[in-house]
Amino acid sequence: MPTALIDRYRTVQSRIHSACVKANRAPDTVRLIAVSKLHPAEDIRILALSGQLAFGENYVQELTAKVHALDKTPIEWHFIGPLQSNKCKEIATTAYMMHSLDRVKLIAPLAHFRPEHMPPLKVLLQVNMDDEHSKSGVQTFNELLLLAQAVIAHKSLDLQGLMTIPAPCTDPIAQSRPFAQLREWRDRLSDTLNLALPELSMGMSVDLEAAIAEGATMVRVGTDIFGARPTQSHLT
Ligand SMILES: *Cc1c(COP(=O)(O)O)cnc(C)c1O
Fold this sequence. Notes:
Helices cover about 40% and strands about 15% of the residues. It is of the alpha/beta class.
Protein backbone atom coordinates (compact mmCIF):
# COMPACT_ATOMS: atom_id res chain seq x y z
CA MET A 1 0.00 0.00 0.00
CA PRO A 2 1.39 3.40 -0.98
CA THR A 3 0.23 4.98 2.31
CA ALA A 4 2.18 2.43 4.36
CA LEU A 5 5.22 3.00 2.14
CA ILE A 6 5.01 6.77 2.49
CA ASP A 7 4.46 6.47 6.27
CA ARG A 8 7.60 4.34 6.63
CA TYR A 9 9.51 6.80 4.45
CA ARG A 10 8.40 9.75 6.62
CA THR A 11 9.36 7.82 9.77
CA VAL A 12 12.89 7.23 8.43
CA GLN A 13 13.16 10.91 7.51
CA SER A 14 12.21 11.90 11.05
CA ARG A 15 14.69 9.41 12.55
CA ILE A 16 17.41 11.07 10.46
CA HIS A 17 16.25 14.48 11.58
CA SER A 18 16.26 13.48 15.28
CA ALA A 19 19.69 11.85 14.97
CA CYS A 20 21.06 15.06 13.45
CA VAL A 21 19.60 17.19 16.24
CA LYS A 22 21.05 14.81 18.84
CA ALA A 23 24.47 14.98 17.18
CA ASN A 24 24.32 18.78 16.91
CA ARG A 25 24.33 18.58 13.12
CA ALA A 26 22.21 20.47 10.62
CA PRO A 27 19.58 18.04 9.21
CA ASP A 28 20.53 18.91 5.63
CA THR A 29 24.05 17.50 6.15
CA VAL A 30 22.74 13.92 5.89
CA ARG A 31 21.18 12.56 2.69
CA LEU A 32 18.89 9.57 2.57
CA ILE A 33 19.64 6.98 -0.12
CA ALA A 34 16.52 4.82 -0.45
CA VAL A 35 17.78 1.28 -1.12
CA SER A 36 15.22 -0.21 -3.49
CA LYS A 37 16.93 -3.46 -4.49
CA LEU A 38 14.48 -6.33 -5.09
CA HIS A 39 11.51 -3.95 -4.72
CA PRO A 40 9.36 -2.94 -7.70
CA ALA A 41 9.91 0.15 -9.84
CA GLU A 42 6.40 1.27 -8.87
CA ASP A 43 7.50 1.75 -5.22
CA ILE A 44 10.39 3.90 -6.45
CA ARG A 45 8.02 5.98 -8.56
CA ILE A 46 5.74 6.59 -5.57
CA LEU A 47 8.63 7.79 -3.40
CA ALA A 48 10.08 9.88 -6.22
CA LEU A 49 6.71 11.64 -6.49
CA SER A 50 6.92 12.25 -2.72
CA GLY A 51 10.22 14.07 -3.20
CA GLN A 52 12.86 11.34 -2.79
CA LEU A 53 15.63 11.78 -5.38
CA ALA A 54 18.40 9.29 -4.50
CA PHE A 55 17.86 5.53 -4.86
CA GLY A 56 20.37 2.74 -4.23
CA GLU A 57 20.59 -0.48 -6.21
CA ASN A 58 22.88 -3.52 -5.83
CA TYR A 59 22.46 -5.53 -9.02
CA VAL A 60 23.44 -4.25 -12.45
CA GLN A 61 20.69 -6.07 -14.33
CA GLU A 62 18.00 -4.82 -11.96
CA LEU A 63 19.36 -1.27 -12.03
CA THR A 64 19.37 -1.20 -15.83
CA ALA A 65 15.77 -2.43 -16.00
CA LYS A 66 14.62 0.19 -13.47
CA VAL A 67 16.48 3.03 -15.20
CA HIS A 68 14.60 2.08 -18.35
CA ALA A 69 11.21 1.70 -16.63
CA LEU A 70 11.57 5.05 -14.83
CA ASP A 71 13.24 7.11 -17.55
CA LYS A 72 10.61 9.87 -17.24
CA THR A 73 11.15 10.24 -13.48
CA PRO A 74 13.97 12.43 -12.14
CA ILE A 75 16.12 10.02 -10.11
CA GLU A 76 19.75 9.93 -8.94
CA TRP A 77 20.91 6.30 -9.13
CA HIS A 78 23.46 5.17 -6.55
CA PHE A 79 25.18 1.86 -7.18
CA ILE A 80 26.00 0.21 -3.86
CA GLY A 81 26.60 -3.46 -4.72
CA PRO A 82 29.59 -5.56 -5.75
CA LEU A 83 30.54 -4.85 -9.36
CA GLN A 84 32.13 -7.20 -11.91
CA SER A 85 34.60 -5.54 -14.25
CA ASN A 86 32.64 -6.64 -17.33
CA LYS A 87 29.60 -4.66 -16.08
CA CYS A 88 31.33 -1.28 -15.61
CA LYS A 89 29.80 0.19 -18.74
CA GLU A 90 26.23 -0.14 -17.39
CA ILE A 91 27.22 1.69 -14.22
CA ALA A 92 29.28 4.36 -15.99
CA THR A 93 26.36 5.23 -18.26
CA THR A 94 23.57 5.26 -15.66
CA ALA A 95 24.86 6.00 -12.15
CA TYR A 96 25.14 9.31 -10.35
CA MET A 97 27.43 7.80 -7.73
CA MET A 98 29.33 4.53 -7.32
CA HIS A 99 29.59 3.69 -3.58
CA SER A 100 31.31 0.33 -3.79
CA LEU A 101 34.57 0.78 -5.66
CA ASP A 102 36.96 -1.70 -4.06
CA ARG A 103 39.39 -2.84 -6.77
CA VAL A 104 41.84 -1.10 -9.11
CA LYS A 105 40.55 -3.27 -11.94
CA LEU A 106 37.23 -1.39 -12.04
CA ILE A 107 38.73 2.08 -12.38
CA ALA A 108 39.88 2.21 -16.01
CA PRO A 109 36.63 0.75 -17.44
CA LEU A 110 34.43 3.04 -15.31
CA ALA A 111 36.47 6.06 -16.45
CA HIS A 112 36.50 4.94 -20.06
CA PHE A 113 32.76 4.33 -20.36
CA ARG A 114 31.63 7.49 -18.54
CA PRO A 115 29.96 9.49 -21.35
CA GLU A 116 31.40 12.92 -22.03
CA HIS A 117 28.00 14.59 -21.86
CA MET A 118 27.55 13.44 -18.25
CA PRO A 119 29.26 15.01 -15.22
CA PRO A 120 32.16 12.97 -13.80
CA LEU A 121 31.00 9.82 -12.00
CA LYS A 122 31.11 10.41 -8.26
CA VAL A 123 33.07 7.63 -6.57
CA LEU A 124 33.31 6.32 -3.02
CA LEU A 125 35.88 3.72 -1.97
CA GLN A 126 34.55 0.77 0.00
CA VAL A 127 36.42 -0.11 3.17
CA ASN A 128 35.99 -3.43 4.99
CA MET A 129 36.22 -2.66 8.69
CA ASP A 130 35.64 -6.23 9.88
CA ASP A 131 37.16 -8.80 7.53
CA GLU A 132 35.01 -11.70 8.85
CA HIS A 133 31.79 -10.25 7.50
CA SER A 134 32.36 -9.70 3.80
CA LYS A 135 35.00 -9.99 1.14
CA SER A 136 34.17 -6.59 -0.37
CA GLY A 137 36.22 -3.54 0.51
CA VAL A 138 39.86 -2.74 1.11
CA GLN A 139 41.30 -3.77 4.46
CA THR A 140 44.43 -1.66 4.84
CA PHE A 141 45.05 2.06 4.64
CA ASN A 142 47.79 1.48 2.10
CA GLU A 143 45.40 -0.35 -0.26
CA LEU A 144 42.96 2.51 0.20
CA LEU A 145 45.60 5.08 -0.71
CA LEU A 146 46.60 3.19 -3.88
CA LEU A 147 42.97 2.94 -4.93
CA ALA A 148 42.38 6.65 -4.30
CA GLN A 149 45.46 7.63 -6.31
CA ALA A 150 44.30 5.49 -9.22
CA VAL A 151 40.83 7.11 -9.17
CA ILE A 152 42.05 10.70 -9.09
CA ALA A 153 44.19 10.12 -12.18
CA HIS A 154 40.96 10.07 -14.25
CA LYS A 155 39.07 13.26 -15.19
CA SER A 156 35.79 11.39 -15.70
CA LEU A 157 35.83 10.15 -12.08
CA ASP A 158 35.26 12.36 -9.06
CA LEU A 159 36.50 10.92 -5.75
CA GLN A 160 34.12 12.02 -2.99
CA GLY A 161 34.76 9.84 0.06
CA LEU A 162 34.39 6.42 1.66
CA MET A 163 31.73 3.80 2.26
CA THR A 164 31.46 0.85 4.64
CA ILE A 165 29.05 -1.98 5.50
CA PRO A 166 29.85 -3.21 9.02
CA ALA A 167 28.81 -6.60 10.33
CA PRO A 168 25.20 -6.49 11.58
CA CYS A 169 25.10 -5.52 15.25
CA THR A 170 22.41 -4.16 17.58
CA ASP A 171 24.56 -2.73 20.38
CA PRO A 172 24.88 1.05 19.81
CA ILE A 173 28.37 1.28 21.35
CA ALA A 174 29.72 -1.53 19.17
CA GLN A 175 27.89 -0.07 16.14
CA SER A 176 29.74 3.22 16.39
CA ARG A 177 33.26 1.73 16.27
CA PRO A 178 33.54 0.96 12.51
CA PHE A 179 31.84 4.28 11.69
CA ALA A 180 34.34 6.25 13.79
CA GLN A 181 37.17 4.32 12.16
CA LEU A 182 35.87 5.09 8.66
CA ARG A 183 35.78 8.78 9.55
CA GLU A 184 39.38 8.59 10.82
CA TRP A 185 40.53 6.89 7.59
CA ARG A 186 38.71 9.53 5.56
CA ASP A 187 40.44 12.32 7.48
CA ARG A 188 43.83 10.65 7.08
CA LEU A 189 43.31 10.03 3.35
CA SER A 190 42.14 13.59 2.84
CA ASP A 191 45.29 14.90 4.60
CA THR A 192 47.59 12.55 2.68
CA LEU A 193 46.16 13.53 -0.71
CA ASN A 194 45.47 17.15 0.24
CA LEU A 195 42.01 16.65 -1.21
CA ALA A 196 38.56 17.32 0.28
CA LEU A 197 36.65 14.04 0.70
CA PRO A 198 33.30 15.23 2.01
CA GLU A 199 31.23 12.03 1.82
CA LEU A 200 30.86 9.21 4.33
CA SER A 201 28.30 6.63 3.16
CA MET A 202 27.51 4.63 6.29
CA GLY A 203 24.47 3.54 8.26
CA MET A 204 21.50 1.38 7.26
CA SER A 205 18.08 0.58 8.78
CA VAL A 206 19.43 -0.74 12.09
CA ASP A 207 22.33 1.61 12.69
CA LEU A 208 21.66 4.93 10.96
CA GLU A 209 21.59 6.80 14.31
CA ALA A 210 25.06 5.54 15.26
CA ALA A 211 26.38 6.41 11.78
CA ILE A 212 24.98 9.95 11.92
CA ALA A 213 26.55 10.45 15.37
CA GLU A 214 29.93 9.52 13.80
CA GLY A 215 29.59 11.83 10.79
CA ALA A 216 27.68 9.96 8.06
CA THR A 217 26.72 12.24 5.17
CA MET A 218 24.70 9.53 3.40
CA VAL A 219 22.66 6.76 5.00
CA ARG A 220 21.50 3.83 2.86
CA VAL A 221 18.13 2.60 4.09
CA GLY A 222 16.18 -0.26 2.54
CA THR A 223 14.09 -2.42 4.88
CA ASP A 224 12.72 0.36 7.09
CA ILE A 225 11.37 2.15 3.99
CA PHE A 226 10.30 -0.60 1.60
CA GLY A 227 9.67 -3.42 4.08
CA ALA A 228 11.31 -6.86 4.06
CA ARG A 229 12.95 -7.82 0.78
CA PRO A 230 11.78 -10.79 -1.24
CA THR A 231 14.47 -13.47 -1.33
CA GLN A 232 17.28 -12.68 -3.68
CA SER A 233 16.91 -14.13 -7.14
CA HIS A 234 19.63 -14.90 -9.67
CA LEU A 235 20.24 -11.20 -10.34
CA THR A 236 23.85 -10.04 -10.57
C1 LIG B 1 20.77 -3.73 1.13
C2 LIG B 1 21.75 -2.71 1.48
C3 LIG B 1 21.43 -1.62 2.30
C4 LIG B 1 20.08 -1.45 2.99
O1 LIG B 1 20.03 -2.30 4.09
P1 LIG B 1 18.74 -2.31 5.06
O2 LIG B 1 19.22 -3.07 6.23
O3 LIG B 1 17.65 -2.99 4.31
O4 LIG B 1 18.41 -0.90 5.38
C5 LIG B 1 22.39 -0.66 2.51
N1 LIG B 1 23.62 -0.74 1.94
C6 LIG B 1 23.96 -1.77 1.16
C7 LIG B 1 25.32 -1.80 0.56
C8 LIG B 1 23.06 -2.78 0.90
O5 LIG B 1 23.43 -3.82 0.13
